[in-house]
Design brief:
The protein has 9 helices and 13 strands. The chain is α+β, with helices and mostly antiparallel strands and about 350 residues long. The strands form 4 sheets. A 5-stranded antiparallel beta sheet has the order 1-2-7-4-3, covered by helices on one side. Strands 12-11-10-13 form a 4-stranded antiparallel beta sheet, covered by helices on one side. The longest helix is centred in the last third of the chain and has 37 residues, at about 265-300. The relative contact order is 0.11.
Length: about 350
């Protein structure tokens, strides 16, 4: 993700009266081109200027797993809007002494809610709703469908590259944490979910927040939803690409006015708990297996056949138990696109462990 830092050029305009100093900062946000000055604000927010008669890119086609099926989704994009987003300066202009919160929030909101992208959102959501209706998805599953789609987009970051507008990320089939988070937050907010961006300037990371009753990440009011790879709603990664661990309090940027909530955090918490437990059990039993293996080798070398034969069944039982925990761990790891099926599978396979 591009780093949100006040790091570029500063200029001063000294007026004749009162020695008024005007500070202008050009900030390379994960944002787009310069737009209109917000009313009553000192921040010039991103804005798309469509380029008429621009050639549209080839319609992207996405193929990704969801629950027990494979989803295929494709859609052409408006060439004029895409070209305008692509050609934007990706800078935010700040006048005067403005806090980080005061320029980050309106800039990200402008990138998501730029009116030129409204047609893009509506056309894409028509396709998602068709999938929802075909498979009779609940509101929770529908949110998961859209999340898995965005998570399945190729993660790609190139140095200090500025963020893309959602239409760019979709058309180019790749993006980094802020690119993918802006796209997901835009889609979910348009479908009426209580959604937020969770911005971590200190770690140069961004995720999405979703309202889930009784649970929240830190004191944000939302649970954490990672967008860079497949993961369950409410599960924060232990570390990010490059070994980065999230420590800071995120800046919370509510998106839209939706009222829909996610109601399966109890299940994703259970799955994640079993994932952690199974990993610990595999490590613990592996140590026991190695100790017992050494003991068996010692008994064999001393020809203590009776004791050896008594110990072999215990050794085999440990191996079997370790394999079962490993199976649970690997199943969860390999099925993070299927909360519903994984929850049922893990419950069934962990009953007698």
């Amino acid at each position: 993700m591009s780093r949100d830092r006040l790091s570029l050029s500063t200029s001063f305009d000294k007026r004749a009266l009162g020695l008024l100093v005007l500070v202008i900062l050009f900030i390379p946000l994960s944002a787009g081109c310069i737009g209109l000055l917000l009313h009553g604000s000192n921040v010039v927010t991103p804005h798309i200027v469509p380029i008429e008669n621009a050639v549209a890119p080839a319609p992207p086609i996405y193929i990704f797993p969801f629950e027990n099926t494979i989803i295929t989704l494709g859609m052409p994009v408006n060439g004029s809007v895409y070209a305008g987003a692509k050609a934007s300066d990706k800078e935010v202009t700040v006048y005067g002494n403005v806090s980080e919160r005061d320029w980050i929030t309106p800039s990200y909101l402008a990138m998501i809610n730029d009116p030129s992208q409204e047609e893009f959102y509506q056309n894409l959501l028509i396709r998602f709703r068709q999938i929802r209706d075909k498979y009779q998805l609940s509101d929770d599953e529908y949110l998961e469908l859209i999340a898995v789609f965005v998570q399945s987009i190729k993660y790609e970051t190139i140095g200090e590259n500025p963020a893309k507008f959602p239409i760019e990320t979709f058309a180019e089939k790749s993006g980094d944490c802020d690119d993918k988070s802006l796209l997901l937050a835009g889609l979910l907010s348009h479908e009426g979910y209580q959604t937020a961006l969770l911005s971590f300037p200190e770690e140069s990371h961004m995720a999405v927040g979703i309202s889930c009753p009784g649970m929240q990440y830190k004191d944000t009011g939302y649970v954490y939803l990672e967008t860079t790879n497949l993961s369950f709603v409410g599960v924060r990664p232990d570390e990010l690409v490059g070994g980065i661990i999230l420590h800071s309090e995120p800046l919370v940027i509510p998106i839209g006015t939706g009222t829909k909530i996610y109601g399966k955090c109890d299940q994703t918490s259970y799955i994640h708990g079993m994932y952690i437990t199974s990993e610990k059990k595999v490590d613990e039993i592996t140590s026991q297996v190695q100790n017992m293996k050494n003991e068996l080798q010692s008994l064999a070398s001393t020809h203590n056949i009776n004791q050896y034969n008594l110990l072999v069944p215990q050794y085999n039982n440990l191996l079997q138990k370790r394999n079962r925990f490993a199976e649970i761990h690997n199943y969860i790891l390999d099925h993070q696109y299927d909360r519903k099926g994984t929850f049922e599978w893990v419950k069934t396979h962990s009953i007698d462990l």
